[in-house]
Amino acid sequence: MGISTDFSVAISGAGLSGLCLAQYLMRAGIDVHVYERDPGPFVRRQGYRIILDRYGLAALRESLPRPLYRLALATGDEPGGHLRFTDSRLRDAFTITFKDEPHATRQVDRLTLRSILLSGLDGRVHYGRSAVAVDDAGPAGLRLRFTDGGSVPATVVVGADGVGSALRARLMPDAEPESTPMAGVYGRSPLWRDGVSVIPDALRTSGVLALADRPGRAFFFTSMRFGENPREAFARLAPGGYAPTGDDYVMWGLLLRRDEVPAGVRGDLLALRDLAARWSTDFHPLIRRLVDTAELDSTVLNLFATGRRPRRWAVPRATMMGDAVHVMPPFGAHGGNTALRDAALLGRRLVEARAGAMSVEEAIAGYQDEMAPYAFRAVDTAAGLMRRLTGGAAAPHWVLTRLLPRLHPVTVPEA
Ligand SMILES: Cc1cc2nc3c(=O)[nH]c(=O)nc-3n(C[C@H](O)[C@H](O)[C@H](O)COP(=O)(O)OP(=O)(O)OC[C@H]3O[C@@H](n4cnc5c(N)ncnc54)[C@H](O)[C@@H]3O)c2cc1C
User: Fold this and answer.
1) Where are the domains of the chain?
2) What is the 3 state secondary structure string of the chain?
3) Tens digits of residue pLDDT in 56-90
4) Among 3.30.450.40, 3.30.470.20, 3.90.1030.10, 3.50.50.60, what is the CATH number of 4-406?
5) Which residues belong to any copy of the FAD-binding domain (predicted)?
6) What is the pLDDT of residue 248?
7) Pocket around ligand 1: residues whose beta carbon is below 6 Å from it?
């Protein structure tokens, strides 16, 4: 389909939602450009995996050309699996089992997903462009301005620039996110050592949240096994596309109280890993080994925040998606899925507007009205889960770490 330039969309941020929307609009023949602050596509490791639920998978299915959607499934981990809640010695408290259906829940490597989302967008993603403001340029449209002094015109501007959004203050002036008392130090470690998996067979398909004896601290880990090797799968389904990685790994996160994070450790990889090592000494030896074998350049600090429901959208032909609107603590795996869901919904509305079914302003207002209820329900769910699992309420913590683990046999002996 040819691209018509009388209706153009400028997106700030080439993350999950920005790229997913760009894919949607490209397929519909809409003139779309994405402006990304990073100097290139893979400058940060973003080294973790992401669980896609039925909303995220449905959004990808609707937005991507069929071979790219198949690529996401082919390179993902096997469907199904479990999430186990245990005490610090990995004794089970309770387990959630995911549906064993290909389109229900799927664990994928985030960097591979980003490569898939970038496929076919050549010339439409512009790196080293840090958006700073949106100006109303009258009936003709808007201008998206950058820190380098440049600007671009567009009929519609979409802020998909993540939790630290530079556009939020202008577009959603009353909705700065709130910080929470919790933080996470995330890392990844190789899954295979001398041909042997570091994760025992009993936990092969499980994510594990191990709760420490004292409330407010926990350790999460899960292994990411690529289904098909990404290089081979890209060659088959997206020739010319780039697969940045293909080695199986364990992603882990030490959850701790924000006031336990010393000032100045952000960006200091050694200090972050030391922090994780120090606070994981009371956990099962398997957990300590994961921290000890971590790949240093994948260690990141994340201070958990919750988005605030916007009461006013200040610029009628501009809107926002994803973490920029509704950041949430990473409990329940809703953040990325909700961001992808936004992208497909907004894409649908903008395509309807371009076809003349409604005005651009109505299309965007319709997106915002439909997005806010599901997105802030997800924020509330994630924040509630975080409180229940890491909060100081004595009874639930005692049930999870003392009572329930006694009722189960030892899953992973402490060799
Ligand atoms: C450790 C961890 C584990 C997670 N696991 C899951 C999971 O299992 N399932 C799930 O659904 N979610 C998960 N999430 C959440 C998920 O990663 C985010 O919700 C998702 O990435 C949000 O997508 P986004 O498009 O809004 O923003 P992002 O993907 O963060 O992208 C924002 C982009 O904007 C760019 N940018 C920033 N500022 C500017 C600017 N001024 N101008 C231009 N570009 C800019 C950034 O460089 C970035 O590329 C997890 C998060 C973390 C931290």
Assistant:
1) 4-406
2) CCCEEEEEEEEECCCHHHHHHHHHHHHCCEEEEEECCCCCCCCCCCCCEEEECHHHHHHHHHHCCHHHHHHHHHHCCCCCCEEEEEECCCCEEEEEECCCCCCCCEEEEHHHHHHHHHCCCCCCEECCCCEEEEEECHHHCEEEEECCCCEEEECEEEECCCCCCCCHHHHCCCCCCEEEEEEEEEEEEECEECCEECCCHHHCCEEEEEECCCCCCEEEEEEECCCCCHHHHHHHHCCCCCCCCCCCEEEEEEEEEHHHCCCCCCCCHHHHHHHHHHHCCCCCHHHHHHHHCCCHHHCEEEEEEECCCCCCCCCCCEEECCHHHHCCCCCCCCHHHHHHHHHHHHHHHHHHHHCCCCCHHHHHHHHHHHHHHHHHHHHHHHHHHHHHHHCCCHHHHHHHHHHHHHCCCCCCCCC
3) 999 999 999 999 999 999 999 988 888 898 989 99
4) 3.50.50.60
5) 308-381
6) 95
7) 12-18, 35-38, 48, 50-51, 56, 130-131, 160-162, 164, 166, 186, 253, 302, 322-324, 330, 333-337, 339
